[in-house]
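Hi team,

As requested, here is the filled-out complex form for the iron/sulfur cluster run. I kept the field names the same as last time so the parser does not choke. Let me know if anything looks off before we queue the next batch.

— J.
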Amino acid sequence: MAENRKYEVDPVTGSPIHPYTWDGIGELETPPPRWWVLTYAVCVLFAIAWWVAYPAWPYIAGYTKGVLGYSTRADVAEQLAAAKAAQAPMNDKLAKLDYAAIAADPELMTFATAGGKALFGENCAQCHGSGAAGNVGYPNLLDDDWLWGGDYATLEATIMHGVRSTVDADTRQSQMPAFGKDGILTREQVDDVAAYVLSLAGTAPADAAAAEKGKAVFADNCVACHGDAGQGLRDFGAPKLTDSIWLYSGDPKAVAAQIWNPRHGVMPAWAGRLDPLAIKKLVIYVHGLGGGE
Amino acid sequence: MSTTVNPRMPQTIDEADIPVWSHRPKVTPKKVKGPIRNLKWLVMAVLLGIYWGVPWLRFDRGPFAPDQAILIDMPGRKAYFLWFEIWPQEVYIVTLLLIVAAIGLFAVTAMLGRVWCGYTCPQTVWTDLFMTVERWIEGDRAQRIKLDKAPWSVSKLGKRLAKHAAWLFIGMMTGGAWILYFNDAPTVVPEFVTGQAGFAVYATVGFLTFTTWLMAGVARENVCMYMCPYARFQSAMFDQDTLAVTYHTARGEKRGKHKANESWEGRGHCIDCRQCVEVCPTGVDIREGLQMGCISCGLCVDACNSIMDRVGLPHGLIAYDTERNVELMAAGKPRKWNFFRLRTVGYLAVFAVAGMGVLYGLVSRAPLDAAVIADRNPLYVRLSNGDLRNGFTVKVLNKSTSPHTVTLSLTGLEGGEIVVPGHEGEAAPSVEVAPDAVAAIRAFVKLAPANWKGEPIDFEFTVTDPTRDLSVSVPTRFEGPTK
Ligand code: SF4
Ligand code: SF4
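And here is what came back:
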């Protein structure tokens, strides 16, 4: 400040008027109140103290860590541990009780279902869909049709050991012969039996005569697994053919294709990957989706 | 508004002399007696009585709800106010209530000026209380100024310690009463004293003890001057008919000292005794005209009136008056009051309409409500017998203080069948909902393929409480395969 300028004083407020005026309009240089100035100074000091205490400044390959050693990651880990600890009593109870006892306790059911839902999203949704509605070749878990059974114990066994798993000796195995590809049936016979199978499910066959011929083929080749009336056999995982649910589509061509050269889905065995408690929660969740038996 | 310019004010100032911060002189208000002071004592007693007494009022709501007349139950997410109960989704009622209160405040301010500031604002009431305590301990204005200037001594230290201890105690009682609005008062007080209350309780009390001490003891008028937004914008409600504490310049000037038996001819009635300035809690000289610092507390009115008594002049040199009246009186004409004018009647009308709306909202609040969330992933499921099934979550809100059983049924879905897990086989499943709770009921709706026409069907879930003759219908739709 080279010169000591004189400021005019505004007669109304008593504040100095800044010498720079614009079209005769000047700005008041009212000094801020003391507490404001002091608070401002304290804030500046606080900011500097913060830089020292906490992670603050980035540099090319990292950042200043701060002397307190605070880290949000450590915080998260702590919170996760705390959440686990908070869930422990419920988890213990869940682990001890059998399915029937759990089903009788609404609070436990809510807890298990919520946990099962999260686990399902992480582990099962990739094939069965996030809404569990499945897809062609991946069973819909919402409906009332089960290949292997939909009660608690059966669901648990299926999830634990999987289906056609290559690593689990107790896995569910079923194999339908490739009737067409392996030459067991002719093309015509396959079409006939497909027409017959569709008629079992209540779909009027396009060709009634073919369906009639297919009945005999069915009796000779299919009843061992699918039953006399196509009612299926859960012990073999042989699908029920009389209902409206088709794992590989109910389109006549798709049914014929499945008889000619069947596709076989694989489900991993989860016993080694998830702990028994997680599997229990999954069983409860899947059972509660709408088709539980 | 006439601006009275202080003749002692300098015309220019050197740049180097402009201070970094403004030097506000410490305000050391003097004690005053008079009818307005008495009114202020009364208002203060009533308001503090309400603040400390209300949490102890009981109100019977039956066995499932708290019996505290006014309670904000944070963990339970409910607020109870006598007959009324507010759930989080009804917070808009509180918002409306605040808007109504604001408009009421505007109406009062347009008519009567800053009566809120001068009499009822918590900042004013608590500051007044703190100043009274200060006066008890350190004496009146003259003694306090002397004490401020005196060097530190045992007696000064003792007085200061006593004052701050008393202030902190009041602060603690203030914070302590605050938590009673959020907890059952008779339960939390013994818990608090025996150290069993929760962390939030102690933290709240501690924080409010500090802020009460800071605001009412240390900051005082600075809150009104620098922090309060209302002080800043209420000039928008003022006009020439608004009541304000006013110095009648025409009568008072030219001011000057006055000796007994001296004539009043050719001079003003103000004897420049500065009593009005000394009693002012915000340090204002009201003779300079209406200004932001004046909270309209009227203490200078009492002070000046007692001086007028002493010099044998009529009251009212400083009085609650309007700008219009000041001008009328200066011109020798009678006063004219104009409380009900377009602006105030407008405020009152909006106040009445909005207030009625809030009341209607509270009174017509249904004790039963429902919401339906349809499953979106997937929209529908095909069952083995060919039926279509949609999944729903029906949330039933029981906003009453006793448990109730509701039944679910479908309206407008030809052939639709409702299945609630655990209630299979019930044509209209009945579910019990706990008092003051939301039940999330999983409900499946089935439809035979014959009833599906390839288009989504709009229908309603009807939740009925037969014992209370209540029912709510919530629209939703049934989805299936479309062509
Ligand atoms: S109290 Fe009345 S007489 Fe005394 S200075 Fe104030 S206005 Fe003048
Ligand atoms: S000027 Fe008078 S009315 Fe205004 S705050 Fe001061 S004492 Fe109260």
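Two things worth flagging: Chain B has three domains: 32-86+121-220, 239-330, 368-478. Residues 47 and 120 of chain B are 8 Å apart (CA to CA).

Thanks,
J.
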